[in-house]
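Need the bound structure for flavin-adenine dinucleotide, inputs here:
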Amino acid sequence: MAHVIVVGGGPAGASLAFLLADRGVEVTLLERQRDFAREFRGEVLLPTGIAALEEMGLAGVLAAVPRSEPRVLEAYLNRQRLVRIEGEPDFFDGRMPAAFSQPALLEGIVAEAAKRPAFRFLRGATARGLLHEGGRAVGVRVYSEEREIELHADLVVGTDGRGSLVRARGGFEARAQDLPMDIVWCKVPSLDAIPGVRVYLGRGHLLIAYRSWDDRTQVAWAILKGTFGELRRQGIERWLEDMAEHVTPDLGEHLRASVGNLEHPFLLDCRADRVTRWSVPGALLLGDAAHVMSPVGAQGLNIALRDVVVAANELVPVLREGAAPDAVDAAGARVEAARLPEIVPIQRRQALPPRVVLQRAWWGGPARRLLARFLVTSLGQRLVMANARPFLQGIGDVRLRV
Ligand SMILES: Cc1cc2nc3c(=O)[nH]c(=O)nc-3n(C[C@H](O)[C@H](O)[C@H](O)COP(=O)(O)OP(=O)(O)OC[C@H]3O[C@@H](n4cnc5c(N)ncnc54)[C@H](O)[C@@H]3O)c2cc1C
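Answer from helper R.:
Posting the output first, comments after.
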């Protein structure tokens, strides 16, 4: 019977391990954390991600996960409200984007996988290196319970995120995109005036606030790359004051009052890249390990889940039929070929908005005002929706066939 090691129990790794075990393939899932809540995780699921979980048969797991569905979206330019959208627009097809507790989702998926005898889960197990034989990855060196062990497999799948060890040790190469921003990320106590999402644009800044699954208000503040050191030197109070000056008075006052109640403020070093090949003999990368997505449009988690559906389609048949090395490697190459027509254009589309929104040149302000005036017209809104569609619905149909 074929054996697969999946390195990293994030959304990609947990769901792939579930699907393989459900289809009778022996799988060992390694996760360095003992508790899913210890690793920060993106939490907005879009129609693409929700549909992928449904395809996997995990709709029941998702239904039990705490969530917050935004029913109102408001966008502001220079603190003036431009638009307010209420309710569930038709284009979501009943799959309303929402902030979900990712730790609860992951616990639900591994609990479901654990009902399959082919599934083995090692928590607190860190992959430290790859084992090679004759130029082929044949296993993983794992540190677990204060000792190092060697595990062998027919295939190693790296779903170990943006700092992937499998990527680094497997001889993969990546090309990075140039991103002009980083994001300051924190939660503040709930503000009832924000039942959904607010987006504030203006003066070279972008701030997004939304109600999260735990009812607290999540704040994401885009800053120019390289300016966080200065911000940190100024201290949290100054930093909250900068944000407060940028938003409407209700949120501004709330931010000032939250000085002592900030939860886990941290800097997200924004990156976007993609490996030049997703597989080498014996190893395959999926999710962030293969392509770190820019935060624009909340794509990373959703794209990772779609990778998994396609990977299961290609891998399950060859793993069930004896896992011949050439067939396994050819399946890995087919996964890449099937995913690039979505991921390349999405990464391209993600690159533009930060350049306009964070533009500090003299023409940035007038350009944003002009654009904002256009975007509230019906033609502008149609254009926005046409451009948002690939982010919400994906490019092409991703269906589970195994
Ligand atoms: C602040 C922030 C906000 C985000 N918001 C969103 C959002 O709203 N919507 C969205 O779609 N995406 C969002 N993202 C991106 C999203 O979180 C990722 O794209 C997504 O989690 C990728 O899933 P993954 O399974 O590929 O990797 P990850 O979720 O990164 O999971 C990798 C797992 O591998 C484990 N691991 C790493 N190294 C090892 C090792 N050597 N051995 C064993 N285990 C290991 C890690 O502990 C982790 O559990 C956000 C990201 C950040 C940082």
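Comments: The chain has twelve helices and 21 strands. The radius of gyration is 22 Å.
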